[in-house]
Amino acid sequence: MEGRGERVRCLARNPGYLAGRFSPDTRIIAGDVLDPDSLETALEGVDTAYYMVHSMGSGDNFEEQDRIGVRNFARVARQHGVRRIIYLGGLFGDGELSSHLASRREVGDILASEGPLTLEFRASTIIGSGSLSFELLRSLVDRLPLMVTPSWVRTLTQPIATGDVIAYLICGLDLELKDSAVFEIAGPD
User: Fold this and answer.
1) Could you point out which of 5, 65, 176, 184 has its C-alpha 20 to 30 Å from the C-alpha of 103?
2) DSSP string, 97-109
């Protein structure tokens, strides 16, 4: 993003965790989508905001935390005149959704209905160093030379490379849209 000349601001609950991971030009702001007051500084003067927040690791009530957080973000973004939100959601089929994917879909729906114009990219497993899916898979392979699973453990995915996801997210800045839109992004396999 900064290579394009864009000024980048990043909201993080724990800015210290990000030390040394960003360009010195990136402005890191402490905040949390569950605390609407902390979003004021983060969204002031912002043209396009990326929403990549997920509460799944926070316990049993992650769906409600996702709802509260996204509603706070959508409201404050709208109040500050954010032109567009780009959201990276989950790719899902026609069957019954896991609570994780149902929450991802609901977050996209809330952004589109309550926030500024929203561009949602839906991705399946993102493969690349640092992605949760990749690191989980790497950990399993490193620790288990063989793993036996029940016959019902079968989930087809359409993995996509981290670099391809980043390219979509950057292209979303320039995409001409009149209304909120959803694009499914996935690799060909």
Assistant:
1) 176
2) PPHHHHHHHHHHH
